[in-house]
Specification:
The chain is about 20% helix and about 30% strand. With about 280 residues, the chain is α/β, with parallel strands linked by helices.
Length: about 280
Amino acid sequence: MGIIDYHSPLNILISVKGHPYERDAFAAVFESFEGIRHTFVEQPASQAFLNPQAAEPWDVLVFYDMPGIDFSAQPPNFIEPSETLKIGFKDLLSAGKGMVFLHHAIAGWPLWPEYGEIIGGRFFYAPSECRGKAVLDSGYRHDVPHIVSVEDKGHPIAKGLDRTFSLTDELYLCEVFDNDIHPLLTSDYSFDREHFYSAHHAVTGKMFCNDDWPHPEGSSLIGWTKTVDASRICYLQPGDGPDTYASEHYRQLLENAIRWEAGQDHCDNGKTTRS
């Protein structure tokens, strides 16, 4: 830690901020990857790099951020991304820049529906509209011991992983666009309202509450890939805190995802979506 890496051949940019996390423990994950150098940039400064020219030095972009939500208000205010950011992001997809979205990144830019289409799902902090229909706010549950199953053992992202492994992590009950994604990981946890708490209740002062929140059952998918324009996309829901950061399974999973995004393994399993 603290040494500038001038030699690793694979270079990644990690966009952070918008949701609490333990920076040193999270950074240790990337420091454990041999041959991968990383740069952390916080939101909103990281937005300056989200266009093909500025992002050129990096092989892969990793998003562990949650932009577009102002938690200084209760309930939070939602912020529109700039047109410049939208255009730059879409140009990155056309240019084929690989992107990995982690955990809470699925909640980013709630007023930009296309962002959720890029990721393959949405987490909402308030009742919203999704794909033309009204949906309730999403659910969360901290520190859940659960079993992860690898649904596609032949995918490069699953290389070296057991078919099943254990994690203790936060899980989400949220919108997953099952028909547009290639499934990688599922959880054996119960994805129904009885096992989750309302995100809207949480941000309006009622933590760990699911009263008056009739959320329908959700998907057990917690990891997937897809292709948007020329870009490989991967979303991994695991990654809330130090227990997961320290997991060898999680580190292998994330390293594999980064290398797959960079084209170091060939795979055509991601479904193609045009934005």
